[in-house]
Amino acid sequence: MAQLMEDQVFMAFTTHAAIVILKMILMGPMTAYFRFTRGSFANEEDVARKSAEEKKKLLRAHPDVERVRRCHRNDLENIVPFVMVGLLYALTGPELSAALLHFRVFTASRLFHTVAYVGKLPQPSRALSYLGGMLATLSMAYNVLSSVLIL
Amino acid sequence: MAQLMEDQVFMAFTTHAAIVILKMILMGPMTAYFRFTRGSFANEEDVARKSAEEKKKLLRAHPDVERVRRCHRNDLENIVPFVMVGLLYALTGPELSAALLHFRVFTASRLFHTVAYVGKLPQPSRALSYLGGMLATLSMAYNVLSSVLIL
Amino acid sequence: MAQLMEDQVFMAFTTHAAIVILKMILMGPMTAYFRFTRGSFANEEDVARKSAEEKKKLLRAHPDVERVRRCHRNDLENIVPFVMVGLLYALTGPELSAALLHFRVFTASRLFHTVAYVGKLPQPSRALSYLGGMLATLSMAYNVLSSVLIL
Question: pLDDT at position C2, please?
Answer without folding.
Answer: 55
